[in-house]
Design goal:
Blueprint: E1 27-30, H1 35-61, H2 75-78, H3 84-87, E2 91-95, H4 101-108, E3 112-117, H5 120-129, E4 135-137, E5 150-156, H6 166-176, E6 177-188, E7 216-219, E8 225-229, H7 234-243, E9 246-252, H8 269-272, E10 278-285
Helix pairs in contact: 1-5
Length: 286
């Protein structure tokens, strides 16, 4: 769940066994990165950095909390998937589940979730926390499920920001949803790509074109991508959704709440009070 940028909290309810991360001399750049390169890079990145991510963000995410974004919007209050009473007995697919915190919350409401992630190490953290949620390691663009297997699907900053062709993912989600099924996903708000990824005042001045869709890539000294993130404008996201057979029923831009004093990479109270940081798309299958 949620962006890889860091938040200041350092503890979880259960500390994982920390693996020593591989050391890379990295260069941050903007260049093209295709479907295969993006998937390979991001699988490796999340496997190497899952331990640090879960330690730094574990308290914020909880073990069985469904939080959509660094702003702290909780499904308990948002009800973007429906009222809690309506979740009982529903088959739900969580895409980019990380340690399956959202799936664990869904199970607590009586739903039947399946937690899917590209990263083996992230799913090991799901096992560490525990619970009975089924875990599946797979690429979101090639979902290993039969047609019409789920009533609902959700993704809190999972998969879609990191894939070169989001329509591949959206069409797969459409395929595995039953008619009338809902898919809700959150991503970095597209406007943020025009600003530096900084939480302070330096992150409030436009430094790049909002319309530049060139991916952000971190690469090693041999030019191999080790992390890739893709930009789509708001219009691109809407067109991707409709081209995949979904109907967009809502677009939520969470405001920064007064209670949230955390910084999470480029997310902060300062920036959150002035420009949106997250976009949440609520879609329904016809």
């Amino acid at each position: 769940m949620t962006p890889r940028r860091r938040v200041g909290r350092k503890s979880t309810t259960r500390e994982p066994i920390i693996q020593e991360p591989e050391q890379f001399e990295l260069e941050a750049t903007r260049r093209t990165a295709g479907v295969t390169e993006s998937a390979r890079a991001n699988r490796g990145w999340w496997d190497r950095n899952a331990d640090e991510y879960q330690i730094e963000h574990g308290t914020f995410l909880g073990d069985d909390r469904f939080v959509w974004c660094p702003e702290g919007l909780d499904e308990v209050e948002a009800e973007l998937l429906g009222r809690p009473d309506d979740l009982k007995g529903k088959d739900v697919l969580e895409i980019g589940a990380g340690a399956a915190q959202c799936s664990r919350w869904l199970a607590g409401q009586g739903a039947r979730p399946v937690a899917l992630d590209l990263s083996h190490r992230q799913l090991q953290h799901a096992l560490r926390i525990g619970g009975s949620v089924p875990l599946v390691q797979a690429d979101a663009a090639v979902l290993p499920f039969r047609d019409a297997s789920f009533d609902l699907a959700c993704s809190a900053y999972g998969a879609l920001p990191f894939v070169a062709d989001p329509v591949l993912v959206l069409r797969e989600v459409h395929r595995v949803l039953r008619p009338g099924g809902r898919f809700v996903f959150s991503v970095t708000h597209p406007i943020r790509w025009a600003f530096p990824d900084e939480p302070g005042p330096e992150g409030l001045s436009v430094s790049a074109s909002y319309f530049d869709r060139t991916p952000y890539v971190e690469q090693d000294d041999e030019g191999r991508a080790v992390y890739v993130e893709h930009h789509r404008t708001l219009g691109d996201r809407v067109r991707d959704i409709t081209a995949s057979g979904f109907r967009l029923v809502d677009l939520v831009e969470p405001q920064w709440p007064a209670w949230n004093s955390s910084e999470w990479g480029g997310w902060s109270p300062l920036r959150g009070g002035l420009i949106p940081g997250t976009a949440i798309f609520v879609c329904e299958r016809g």
